[in-house]
Amino acid sequence: MYTTAHATGSRSLATVRNGEAVRIQRILFDSLRSLCEDLGIHEGDVLHCRAATPALLLLDVPGGHTVELELGWARFVQVFDTLGEDAEYPRAPPGPMPALR
């Protein structure tokens, strides 16, 4: 039986919006998994989207730092459990937002 992403609650990381928190469900390819590991992103991690542009995402990751992930890569990361405002998720320390390239 075919189920949609909406029915299962999972979707692509590329669809997150500013301020949204999500949990990484699955990273689809080994090469992408390696890139994500270098950025400090692993399956099961909760990420907070600091900024979403047409080209990239700025994500607060566990460990308290912010990383950039190109939207082309983010399309192949499956996320779920959109978390509410009260959820605990990593945030970078207060301060100026990093400049987007």
Give an overview of the whole structure.
The protein has 101 residues and is of the alpha+beta class. The chain has a single domain, classed as Ferrous iron transport protein A (FeoA) (SH3 type barrels), CATH 2.30.30. It has 3 helices and 6 strands. It has helices spanning 5-8, 30-39, 71-74, and strands at residues 11-12, 21-27, 46-52, 56-61, 65-70, 77-83. It has a 6-stranded antiparallel sheet. The longest helix is centred in the middle third of the chain and has 10 residues, at 30-39. The model is unreliable at 1-8 (pLDDT under 50).
Quick structural summary:
The protein has 101 residues and is α+β, with helices and mostly antiparallel strands. Helices cover 18% and strands 35% of the residues. It has helices spanning 5-8, 30-39, 71-74; strands at 11-12, 21-27, 46-52, 56-61, 65-70, 77-83.
Query: Which regions are unreliable across 5 or more consecutive residues at pLDDT < 50?
Result: 1-8
CATH topology: SH3 type barrels
- The N- to C-terminal Cα distance equals 43 Å
Main beta sheet: strand number and arrangement?
6 strands, antiparallel
Which architecture per CATH? Roll
Mean pLDDT equals 80
What is the approximate shape? Answer: globular
Which strand order do you get reading across the main beta sheet?
1-6-2-3-4-5
* SS-derived structural category: alpha+beta
